[in-house]
Amino acid sequence: MKIAISGNAGTGKSTLAKKLAKKLGYNYHGMGNIQRKIAKQHGLTIVELGELEKKDSSIDNEIDEMQKKIGETKDNFVIDSWLSAHFIPDAYKIFLYGDIEERAKRIYNSSRKREVEKYGTLNEAISSIQQREKTNRERWIKFYGFDFLDKKNYDFFIDTSGKTPNEVLDLIYNKVNPRL
Questions:
Q1: How is the chain split into domains, by residue range?
Q2: Using alpha carbons only, what angle is made at residue 87 by residues 44 and 100, rounded to the nearest 5 degrees?
Q3: Angle at which helices 122-144 and 46-55 cross, to 10°
Q4: pTM, 2 dp
Q5: Are 60 and 11 in contact, with CB atoms under 8 Å apart?
Q6: CATH classification (class only), 2-161
């Protein structure tokens, strides 16, 4: 089974994808980690990389091809990516969403660990999240005709607000387990 986890920034996509992959004994693929590596290589923040990607499609193309290849050649994996629902259409597609302040707090608190995402204040994190999602959404609608926020593109939606990662994991597992 192929499981694609998408959603808003700060909803726990990577954390949940890793936990679900481990619980199922599946492989995990994280496209956000790849983007952060590319941003670091260019000496950019993740938001600045998004702005660069508007002008230079080669970065998007590289990441897109990686996702397509994973979807075409592998099985029994969990992937977290904003575009996995588009590039791996035969996956079971999950979308995570949540309160903007709670998402920003998660990112703000984890930004100490992320070299390309540093925020001085919570308001900076909120502003950055909103800008990043807006920039990416516009780009993806323009290039792919795909709106990652359109719920028709997903099989299951979860509001992660006020929930622990394990609570969300249980919700996802209970939804996918009967399909295994």
A1: 2-161
A2: 55
A3: 20
A4: 0.86
A5: no
A6: alpha beta
Q: What is the C-alpha radius of gyration for the chain, rounded to an integer number of angstroms?
A: 15
108 Cβ neighbours under 8 A, 6+ residues apart: 119, 121, 122, 124, 125
Q: CA distances (Å), 62 to each of 56, 78, 104, in order?
A: 11, 20, 28
What is the mean pLDDT of the segment spanning 97-112? 85
The tokens for 92 are: 């079971």
- Greatest Cα pair distance, the chain, in angstroms, is 45
Tens digits of residue pLDDT in 69-94: 999 999 999 999 999 999 999 999 99
Burial status of residue 14 (CB atoms within 10 A of its CB: 0-12, 13-18, 19 or more): middle
- The backbone region for 175, taken as left when phi is positive above 0, alpha when psi lies in -120 to 50, beta otherwise, is alpha
